[in-house]
Amino acid sequence: MNETTPAATPTSTAGAVSPDSGLAWTEEGAWPVAPGVHRIPLPLPLDGLRAINVYTVETDDGLTLIDGGWAIEASRAVLERSLALLGHTPADIRSFLVTHAHRDHYTQAVALRTEHGAHVSLGIGDKGSLDEIQDGFSSGDPHLAMLLRAGAADVAKIWGNHAGEAEPDPSVWGYPDTWLEGDHTVAVGERRIDAVSTPGHTQGHFVFADTAAGLLFSGDHVLPTITPSIGFEGGTPEQPLGDFMTSLAKVRALPDLRLLPAHGPLAPSSHARAEELLAHHEHRLAQCLELVGSGERTAYEVAGGLGWTRHERRLESLDVFNTALATMETRAHLVLLVARGDVTVADVDGVDVYRRVGGLDDGA
Known about the structure:
Layout: E1 31-34, E2 37-43, E3 51-59, E4 62-66, H1 73-85, E5 93-97, H2 103-116, E6 119-123, H3 127-134, H4 142-149, H5 153-163, E7 178-180, E8 184-188, E9 191-197, E10 206-210, E11 215-219, H6 240-253, E12 258-261, H7 270-292, E13 296-297, H8 299-304, H9 320-339, E14 343-348, E15 351-356
Parallel strand pairs: 4-5, 5-6, 6-7, 11-12
Antiparallel strand pairs: 1-2, 2-3, 3-4, 8-9, 9-10, 10-11, 13-15, 14-15
């Protein structure tokens, strides 16, 4: 599974101040968000995303955590210190509501379940990704195949050479106790929290809306200053960007809630940010269409014409991992343009090649 590293907006939000703490959002602590709810930033071993926010919800029976963190020693140590500030230990965690099955959200929840018996819930759409891990990727690395189809053979070669160095540990990738399916209400103590299916970043992504308290635990679906990677997950969803944008519209149809993201500071309006993300991707679709032009282009070639991060960096300046993310995100935009009828796609020697409908080469 792959860490969420944004490919289309800022690569780091570490310095952003969160209103609940008045400090950088990554600052260690247990920061009060609302009565009975605290934000705990846990460290990540990455240059771009420095931390993940997990949220504790207090009940008479113990704690429910929204997301679990990455199963590494540094994260576990910070979690223990932060829970101690609230008078708790990891043994007080009764359940996890995990937004999606990426390692920074899921693996520490599984590890703590092994130790303390906490109940773990996860969206059913991520089952295929967990199946691949449990099966040891016996059918091959799906990301390698996607990169090859995107025309990124050189990136795929480097990716393949290093893939074996990051074999996932099956012990922290076990299946959840409960699969979340469809929109429904979850009881968390006296609270009634709406579990809302929001596929896009992954097919099994869920957000959790506590409308009575005015809170949206948004995972990676709605982030305050960056956009999550799209189209880079186990399996091959047919329309990852289409799914993501439909899910953004779904969040927009909920009441306007305070945004509690997995990465970055708290934000006041889920509606405002969902609208910004929809506008961003419409702009990106227009850019991709322009870059296809009147010729034939692969996703990798189109990605090479786009700017990446807020600094508009060129694709060749990114590391291999972020180059792969950028290529797959570009592919997701092109796939949606095909569905909209703006471009066509053809298989040319195992590579997807895109052509603009009505371009000069059509003789129009």
